[in-house]
Amino acid sequence: MFRPVTELAYLTDTRTAYDTVADAYAEEARDALATSPWDRAVLGTFAELVGDTGPVGDLGCGPGRLTGHLASLGLDVFGVDLSPGMVSVARRTYPELRFEVGSMHALELEDGSLAGALAWYSLIHTPPERLPALVAELARVLAPGGRLLTAFQVGDERRHISQGYGHEVSFDAYRLQPDFVAGLFEDAGLELEARLVRAPQEPEKVPQAYLLARKPQRPK
């Protein structure tokens, strides 16, 4: 597949993988929230804190299942994903919502334009040394008082994924330590509001973490 010279290989690999599995992923993940009270609780808290203060971006939205869930909780939410295949599924499944193809590394959003940003397992395909710039980009688009919620698998290792959702793929995923991610938030000028680490639930293999941060009303 042709890759523009300005695009890094891991972005192309991630896009290609999710394009390949888009339909199968959407089918398997469709009812995941129904079996995860922790996810529902964290997302519900995020939605209640953001409320009607402005638009929310589901960044790395995949097939749009959480975009749709946040909309059902009353948020003015839209989705952005690197994978055109995922965006196509999201638009088909939630035609009343807005979805765009785009990169979290260079969001086509004005500074301070979001009241909330969701990065739900969407930091995990970026090499850790490139995460400071990514988190800074998320902080850029948050309005003062805006909130960022992220979720990820806990650990220190890089995993190469060659099989997923019944397809052959080739891309990497990184497990992260909560202290490391919290430090990225602080370096980007965000204030950590909450941290939750829970035990794995089948079929998970490792603990899962949720971090919620807020952009201060005045720069530090």
From TrEMBL:
Domain annotation Methyltransferase: ranges: 58-146
Matches recorded under InterPro entries: Methyltransf_25 (IPR041698), Methyltransf_Superfamily (IPR050508), SAM-dependent_MTases_sf (IPR029063)
Entry keyword annotation includes Methyltransferase: yes
One Pfam assignment: Methyltransf_25
Keyword annotations from UniProtKB, A to Z: Methyltransferase, Transferase
GO molecular function, one term: methyltransferase activity
Tagged with keyword Methyltransferase: yes
GO process annotations (BP): methylation
Gene3D superfamilies: Vaccinia Virus protein VP39
Protein name: Methyltransferase domain-containing protein
